[in-house]
Structure formats: structure tokens, C-alpha cells
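Working notes for the structural subgroup meeting. M.R. asked for a predicted model of this chain before we commit to crystallization trials. I am recording the input and output together here so anyone reviewing the notebook later can reproduce the run.

Input as submitted:
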Amino acid sequence: MTITDDAIILSRESWRESDKRVCFYTRSHGKVHAVAVGAHKIRSKLSGHLEPLREVKVMFASGRRSFKIAQAVTNRSFLTTAIAIEQVRRMGTIVRFVERATEERERDTELFTLLQRSLASLSAAGGLRDVQIASGVALHTLAARLGIAPRLSQCVVCSRADELRFFSAEHGGMVCRTCRVEGSVLPIDRAPEALERYLIAHLQWLHMV
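Returned structure, recorded in C-alpha cell form:
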């Protein structure tokens, strides 16, 4: 049996002597791990299409223990020639988050679309500030879809809705000027960095990191 789907490559790793094990997030089947047999060989036609941060059309074949990659063709790469290191780092955080926060073969077409748009937005971002904003929006949107978004509309300590100037990764949300504790919060202009810390801490709590 074979399955064809659109997919975004989240990660890959060497597998046995000459194979690669690739993690995809697919449109119709959710997260899928599959093995590319012989992908490490010089003449492998698959290898160039199995790099992380690519969107591909992939065909899976059912194996005895896992899916095997029968075919993969690149639709687009989110790594453009003009892309900056910071964009790559933040895209890496996004795909790593999705990989660790999702279960195998649980379909979520909306999450696929959000991931697709998030990576495209980061790929197209211009300066550092645009990259930071795109990253923050992407992480919060994806986290909200997965049910682990931080609390942003009220102080996580006292519940007041004004003077929200700081973000606490420890408490998972915004903190007002009165409740902030020096050294444990970041100012709002560093919100993307703070959100990243929160999500990583959350995954550690779930024993995913």
C-alpha cells in the first residue's frame, strides 16, 4: 500500500549504514516518521529532496515495521539564498517544537497550514525586527492550536489586564509592572525570545526535550 501526501520536513537523521530516517508533518496524516533506504549513497535521487525546512510531495510505502519513502519531490524550500542565520535558527525552533509537541499520525490539516504559513512568513521576513515578530506570532499561533499557549491578556500573578510590560517563561504569560520579579521576566520588546523559552520549558516539563 502507498500513500501520497504534501509534507514539510521537520528533521532527519542517519539510520543504519546507508539509510536516513526523516520526520515529516503531512497535510493529511499528521506527523510521520519514514525511512529513506539507501539515501546516504552518492547516487541516491531521494537525498536532495529530504533536507529539513522543505515542503515536498512524498509517497510512503508500508514496510514491515515502518513507512518507507518511495518518492519525494521538492515543492519549495523555505531556505532561500538570501536567508540569514537568525531566520534559520528560529525556523529550526518552530519545526523542533512541532515535532516534539505532536503525536505520530494524528491528522491536523489546520496545524499543517499554520506551519506552512509560519515558515513562509519567516522566510520572507526582512530585518531582524521583522524576523522576531514573525517568529513570535508563529510560535504563539502554533502553541494555541496545540493547546499550550501562554496567557497574554492578563497578569498571570494578579489577573490585572493593564500595565502588562513583562513576560514570565516560568509562569507562562504576561506579568504586570507590580508583580514582576527582577531576573525572572523579560520586557515585552523581547517577547519572542521569552515565548521561545516558555515553550522549551513546557516541552521539558512534558519530558519531550
